[in-house]
């Protein structure tokens, strides 16, 4: 499968190339209640040290989130989210040698984060958060930044899950175009664990090639997800092996970015999978 090469560059000198190798997005949960590591990194010094460890271990992007989106999470306001980010984000932007994405579905938070040094918006509602119609697309267009647009929905009813996901992504692309955000700034995410049952998550994983065939890079976020725990009967913190297997499946299916907690082992697995996928004719 021939991959599109995308190159992004920002005013602060940071760059990112998608398509030459599988990229690793390291998760930095700056929250007290994330499902597997809540509270471990929600102090500034601890968060900065963890960022440095993840970059040293092979992270190409650091993804910071100030609101947990685990099942049953307690939603917070944009003001509360921004207040959590206020102390850490400027310091993170100054210290981090790789691009930073902000994990938020609120347009106000995204605008603040980009102004404070974030480079990418990671939106779990794929520019389609019902409470803020059109707002995230407008922010992304105004700031001219890439967006990771994840598939999500309320409930788990589908007519044809892959077909419905493609329709969702087509809607996201249309919203981006209407806002003036270049299609080259869109990265899609199948949203494993969001709006999907165990069986649906497995089905999507088995049919990833139908999604990576779309003309957009695909990010895969399977790290420590519940479906892995159900397969392996393990608690979240022990699901690394299953995460690695899912990531290798993702690489072989053409996914461009892996969003993970356990950077070092997953980065190594992805490098091996990349080597096995290399075109021998080059």
UniProtKB/TrEMBL annotation:
Q: In which pathway does it act?
A: Cofactor biosynthesis; tetrahydrofolate biosynthesis; 7,8-dihydrofolate from 2-amino-4-hydroxy-6-hydroxymethyl-7,8-dihydropteridine diphosphate and 4-aminobenzoate: step 1/2
Catalytic function, reaction form: (7,8-dihydropterin-6-yl)methyl diphosphate + 4-aminobenzoate = 7,8-dihydropteroate + diphosphate
Enzyme's top EC category: transferase
Q: Which GO terms describe its biological process?
A: folic acid biosynthetic process; tetrahydrofolate biosynthetic process
Provide this UniProt record's keywords sorted from A to Z: Folate biosynthesis, Magnesium, Metal-binding, Transferase
Q: A GO molecular function for this record?
A: metal ion binding
Q: Where is the Pterin-binding domain?
A: 22-271
This chain belongs to the protein called Dihydropteroate synthase
Under the heading CDD domains, the entry gives:
DHPS
Q: Which cofactor does it need?
A: Mg(2+)
């Amino acid at each position: 499968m021939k991959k599109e090469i995308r190159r992004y560059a920002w005013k602060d000198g940071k760059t990112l190339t998608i398509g030459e190798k599988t990229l690793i997005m390291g998760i930095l949960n700056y929250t007290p209640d994330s499902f597997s590591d809540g509270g471990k990194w929600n102090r500034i010094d601890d968060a900065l040290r963890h960022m440095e460890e993840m970059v040293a271990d092979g992270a190409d992007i650091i993804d910071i989130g100030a609101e947990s989106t685990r099942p049953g999470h307690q939603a917070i306001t944009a003001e509360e989210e921004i207040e959590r980010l206020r102390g850490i984000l400027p310091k993170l932007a100054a210290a981090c040698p790789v691009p930073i994405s902000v994990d938020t579905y609120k347009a106000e938070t995204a605008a603040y984060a980009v102004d404070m040094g974030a480079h990418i918006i990671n939106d779990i509602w794929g520019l389609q958060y019902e409470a803020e119609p059109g707002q995230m697309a407008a922010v992304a267009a105004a700031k001219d930044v890439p967006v990771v647009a994840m598939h999500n929905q309320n409930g788990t009813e589908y007519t044809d899950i892959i077909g419905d996901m493609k329709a969702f992504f087509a809607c996201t692309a249309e919203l981006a175009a209407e806002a003036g955000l270049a299609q080259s700034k869109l990265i899609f995410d199948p949203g494993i664990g969001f709006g999907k049952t165990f069986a649906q998550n497995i089905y999507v994983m088995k049919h990833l090639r139908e999604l990576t065939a779309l003309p957009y890079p695909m990010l895969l976020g399977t790290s420590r997800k519940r479906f892995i725990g159900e397969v392996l009967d393990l608690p979240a913190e022990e699901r690394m092996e299953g995460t690695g297997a899912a990531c290798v499946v993702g690489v072989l299916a053409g996914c461009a970015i892996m969003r993970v907690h356990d950077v070092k082992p997953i980065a190594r697995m992805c490098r091996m999978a990349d080597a096995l996928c290399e075109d021998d004719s080059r």
